[in-house]
Write a structure and sequence with these properties.
By secondary structure, the chain is of the alpha+beta class. Helix content is about 50%, strand content about 15%. It has a four-stranded antiparallel β-sheet, covered by helices on one side. About 20% of the residues are buried. The mean pLDDT is about 95. A hairpin with a 3-residue loop joins strand 3 and strand 4. The protein has three helices and four strands; from the N terminus they run H-E-E-H-E-E-H.
Length: about 100
């Protein structure tokens, strides 16, 4: 049940980020991925996004330079938490920050 929830949340996060133009760095094989989604979102700069997310939204994200995001979807995360992150991501992109 835990693994199933991890996969559902991860698949949802990956699909939503790809709708937003992200390039998947996560395995295309659903059996090979679980509770971590990695995407590349150029030309966004990861550190600028990471700092903005924490300072304005109190959302923690991590990743790699220059524009890779590593998004965790642990068991206790709710779909509405993911939607809150996605709304903040959209807001950041629209602001041109």
């Amino acid at each position: 049940r835990i693994e199933k929830r991890h996969r559902e949340l991860g698949d949802y996060m990956l699909a939503e980020m790809m709708k937003r133009g992200a390039e998947s760095w996560t395995s295309p094989d659903p059996a090979m991925r679980c509770a971590i989604v990695t995407v590349n979102v150029p030309p966004l700069q990861r550190m600028a996004l990471e700092n903005w997310m924490w300072k304005t939204q109190k959302i923690r994200i991590r990743g790699g330079e220059p524009s890779k995001l590593r998004l965790s979807t642990p068991y206790y995360l709710r779909k509405k938490d993911i939607d809150r992150y996605l709304a903040a991501f959209d807001q950041y992109k629209k602001s041109g920050a």
